[in-house]
DNA sequence: AGGGGCAATGTGAATAATCGCGCCTCTTAA
DNA sequence: TTAAGAGGCGCGATTATTCACATTGCCCCT
């Protein structure tokens, strides 16, 4: 079977190993603070060799983003593919929680982009979040009386998104603070239960909005 | 001569102007990505002059942290000064929301520290969050049945904290996404209402936990 | 009153390290 | 043989930091 067709799929190619290393480093330090030397070191090559695979630093960053976006856009597209019911919101939230838990790098990268900018930040926003508010993907129906009349809907959606993402971006702090690995299986279940309960509480909340100022 | 030195009531000293500039830049770009040249440029002096006021870059960063912590530790200390009732939790949350709204730099700095580390990160955690879980500052009483038996209490507290902080760290993204200034007065009221309603929903939620069934 | 120190605060120049990046050569496998 | 990939080398820019100076205002001694 040593055919000379293509041997790229079986063993991770150098380009893929560069992408892996760059993704981790960009997520940790942000775009500008990440040096190509660091990336090359982690791959085990010299930094000039990176230019055999990517045009320059920005192209590498772009490739990292592209790969991440391909994975993370799917659940939202699927949610937008049908009516937004409570169960579908539940399952959407559970999916993205598990996704961010399995790979925290997109959330971290996004947080860096929100704080410091960097290349392709606008594209990042457009492809990850804009579809939430442009299509019919608004939480509607008879179940949510909480946000209907106060104009909080987009903010509420973003709040739940923040809940998921900040869990990941703050994870190193939690490790120290609570003495538990935030990416363990039990921590994932904890996080899922907490978010589910919050969402349930919101769904079932029938009280009046706090008009007191 | 082209100096816009309209000296108001209190003339900020050079050291204070350096602190102001450094705080903004550290919050935006993080510790390592902020250059002393940038800081000096914003103050209007040359970078070697910074060394007349601070020993080195790390000492400057430390001074920035110290000034921020002095402001932001007060509400938590006050909450810990008495029994943790619902109303006191409400008012604590409102206070920190308003504080982060008035000065978003601590949240941004903290997010950078959580992502990339940097000097004094552990001290930052200790002084801002550790007191929440070391003293009696746990949400107790008969009102919160939601988290009592599932061991989620610390995670729930941090979740609300994240809600507040990620609003700030994600603000630039919101500006683009929702077409509204996240730091306007109305946006502040929105954010306050949303968090209050979430907290209320949690307080009044009487359903069974999903894992208990 | 006058001037000699002196600390505080600014500056430009210089240094060593690191950065992104491109040119060129060598190795290796089909 | 050939071409892709890895590495050596170095350029130019930027970094934090130090140093030698210039300038200012203030205290003290005569």
Characterization of the model:
- The structure is a homodimer of 213-residue chains.
- With 213 residues, the first copy, chain A, is an all-alpha fold.
- Helix content of chain A is 63%, strand content 0%.
- Chain A has a domain at 65-205: Orthogonal Bundle (Tetracycline Repressor, domain 2).
- Chain A starts with 13 loop residues before the first helix and ends in a 9-residue tail after the last helix.
- The interface between A and B is large, with 60 and 60 residues.
- Chain A binds a DNA duplex (30 and 30 nucleotides) through loops.
Task: Summarize the topology.
The structure is a homodimer of 213-residue chains.
Chain A: H1 14-29, H2 36-43, H3 57-80, H4 86-102, H5 105-116, H6 121-128, H7 130-134, H8 153-169, H9 171-178, H10 185-204
Helix pairs in contact in A: 1-2, 1-3, 1-5, 3-4, 4-8, 4-10
The structure holds a DNA duplex (30 and 30 nucleotides).
Key phrases:
mainly alpha, disordered N terminus, homodimer, DNA-binding, Tetracycline Repressor, domain 2, 213 residues
The average pLDDT value of chain A, as a whole number, equals 81
Rg for CA atoms of chain A: 20 Å
Q: Strand-and-helix sequence of chain A, N→C?
A: HHHHHHHHHH
Fraction of helical residues of chain A? 55-70%
Query: How many helices of chain A in DSSP terms?
Result: 10
Termini gap of chain A: 74 Å
Largest sheet of chain A: none
Corresponding CATH architecture of the domain at 65-205 in chain A: Orthogonal Bundle
Multimerization state: homodimer
Low-confidence stretches of chain A: 1-10, 142-146
Examine the coordinates and then state which fold CATH places here, giving the name of the CATH topology of the domain at 65-205 in chain A: Tetracycline Repressor, domain 2
Work out the number of β strands of chain A: 0
CATH class of the domain at 65-205 in chain A: Mainly Alpha
Strand content of chain A: under 5%
Biggest interface, CB < 8 A: A-B, 60 and 60 residues
Overall, the morphology of chain A is globular
């Amino acid at each position: 079977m040593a055919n000379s067709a293509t041997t790229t799929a079986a063993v991770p190619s150098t380009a893929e190993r560069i992408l892996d290393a760059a993704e981790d480093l960009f997520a940790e330090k942000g775009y500008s603070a990440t040096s190509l030397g660091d990336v090359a070191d982690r791959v085990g090559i010299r930094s000039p060799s990176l230019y055999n695979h990517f045009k320059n630093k920005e192209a590498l960053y772009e490739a990292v983003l592209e790969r991440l976006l391909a994975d993370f856009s799917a659940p939202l597209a699927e949610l937008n593919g049908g009516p937004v019911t409570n169960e579908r919101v539940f399952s959407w939230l559970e999916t993205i929680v598990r996704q961010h838990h399995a790979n925290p790098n997109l959330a971290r990268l996004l947080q860096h982009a929100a704080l410091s900018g960097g290349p392709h930040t606008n594209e990042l926003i457009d492809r990850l979040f804009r579809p939430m508010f442009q299509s019919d993907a608004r939480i509607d129906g008879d179940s949510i009386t909480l946000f209907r009349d106060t104009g909080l809907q987009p903010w509420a959606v973003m709040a739940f998104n923040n809940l998921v993402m900040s869990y990941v971006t703050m994870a190193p702090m939690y490790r120290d603070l609570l003495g538990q690995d935030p990416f363990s299986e039990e921590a994932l279940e904890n996080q899922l239960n907490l978010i589910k309960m919050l969402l349930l509480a919101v769904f079932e909340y029938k009280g009046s909005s706090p008009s007191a100022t």
